[in-house]
């Protein structure tokens, strides 16, 4: 029996939140369902683009954080 | 000890045991996502850097005082601290983090791209800044879920609980956020896909 997948399933798949059994079934469905594969590809491309928005703090701030850690002693 | 090969959980354990280089690796591993999470909420680099320091100071105190809870991922935990601090900042300022639109402030990316010209670095950064602007233009609920899931690394279940909606609503908002962002990118002049596949 072929399981029907929803757009919500695709979003969960994208973020590795589908249970293994469902994930494998979805990957099988992606091989034969052109419409589903296209919807998945669109979401995946946008998700990849989001990595492009990542930016870095200045080294000054990073160094300050690391230096601060060294000044804090343990209080178990 | 080669900290680069350790997973986050092992790094936390090593740090609590007194290994400062383990903490340095944790900072380098997560600073970008944590900083971006904050920046997308507060929209100001100086405030974002202050809150980034505050986030890690809180994390340092929690871990060194033995109060760190091993449940869940370190990345989710640190990003959640950052997210909460950014939201608290807006409450203190009596401003809404989700209503104002980005005014185009340019964030300079300190990543060093080897063998790239100053010009190509500038173009790349402008493209990335433009993408952050497009994210700011999403409807508030969609933007909130996108930041929480993609940058703050919260699960859809955690997002549903934090925002008081069902998991299906959170999933729906995320889906529309991605679809709307794709449309905005297609309508935008900047060639995102070229950047995606550039080395």
Q: N- to C-terminal separation of chain B?
A: 31 Å
Q: Please provide the count of β strands of chain A.
A: 0
Structural category of chain A = mainly alpha
Query: How would you spell out the order of helices and strands of chain B?
Result: HHHHHHHHH
Sequence of secondary-structure elements of chain A? HHHH
The rounded Rg of chain B comes to 18 Å
Helix amount of chain B: 55-70%
Beta-strand proportion of chain B: under 5%
Using the 3D structure, state the CATH architecture of the largest domain in chain B: Orthogonal Bundle
Level-1 CATH class name of the largest domain in chain B? Mainly Alpha
Largest interface between protein chains, with number of residues from each side: A-B, 36 and 53 residues
What is the count of DSSP helices of chain A, taking H or I runs of 4+ residues?
Answer: 4
Distance between the termini of chain A: 57 Å
- The number of helical runs of chain B is 9
Main beta sheet of chain A, described? none
Oligomer: heterodimer
Task: Give the proportion of residues in helices of chain A.
Answer: 55-70%
Overall residue-averaged pLDDT value of chain B: 81
Largest sheet of chain B: none
Mean pLDDT of chain A: 89
Protein name (chain B): Sigma-70 family RNA polymerase sigma factor
GO molecular function, one term (chain B): sigma factor activity
Domain RNA polymerase sigma-70 region (chain B): 26-95
Keywords (chain B): DNA-binding, Sigma factor, Transcription, Transcription regulation
Polypeptide structure, described:
The complex is a heterodimer of chains A (76) and B (199). With 76 residues, chain A is mostly helical. Helices cover 67% and strands 0% of the residues of chain A. Chain A has 4 helices and no strands. The longest helix of chain A is centred in the middle third of the chain and has 17 residues, at 34-50. Chain B has 199 residues and is mostly helical. Chain B is built from 9 helices and no strands. Chain B has helices at 8-16, 20-42, 45-64, 74-93, 118-136, 140-151, 156-163, 167-187, 192-196. In chain B, helix 1 (8-16) crosses helix 2 (20-42) and helix 3 (45-64) crosses helix 4 (74-93). Chain B is globular, with a radius of gyration of 18 Å. Chains A and B meet through helix 1, helix 3 and helix 4 of A and helix 2, helix 3, helix 5, helix 6 and helix 8 of B.
């Amino acid at each position: 029996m072929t399981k029907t997948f929803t757009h919500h399933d695709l979003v969960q798949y994208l973020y590795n939140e589908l249970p293994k059994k469902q994930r494998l079934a979805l990957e099988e469905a992606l091989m034969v369902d052109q419409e589903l594969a296209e919807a998945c590809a669109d979401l995946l491309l946008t998700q990849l683009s989001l990595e492009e928005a990542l930016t870095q703090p200045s080294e000054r701030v990073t160094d300050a954080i690391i230096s601060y850690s060294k000044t804090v002693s343990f209080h178990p | 000890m080669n900290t680069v090969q350790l997973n986050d959980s092992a790094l936390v354990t090593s740090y609590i045991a007194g290994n400062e280089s383990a903490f340095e690796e944790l900072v380098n591993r997560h600073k970008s996502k944590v900083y971006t999470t904050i920046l997308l909420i507060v929209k100001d680099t100086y405030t974002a850097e202050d809150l980034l320091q505050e986030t890690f100071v809180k994390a340092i105190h929690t871990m060194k005082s033995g109060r760190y809870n091993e449940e869940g991922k370190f990345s989710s935990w640190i990003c959640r601290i950052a997210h909460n601090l950014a939201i608290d900042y807006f409450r203190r300022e009596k401003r809404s983090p989700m209503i104002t639109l980005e005014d185009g402030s340019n964030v300079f990316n300190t990543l060093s791209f080897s063998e790239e010209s100053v010009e190509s670095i500038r173009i790349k950064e402008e493209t990335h800044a433009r993408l952050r602007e497009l994210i700011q233009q999403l409807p508030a609920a969609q933007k909130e879920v996108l930041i929480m899931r993609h940058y703050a690394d919260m699960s859809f279940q955690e997002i549903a609980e934090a925002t008081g909606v069902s998991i299906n609503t959170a999933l729906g908002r995320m889906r529309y956020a991605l679809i709307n962002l794709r449309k905005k990118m297609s309508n935008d002049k900047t060639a995102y896909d070229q950047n995606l596949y550039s080395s």
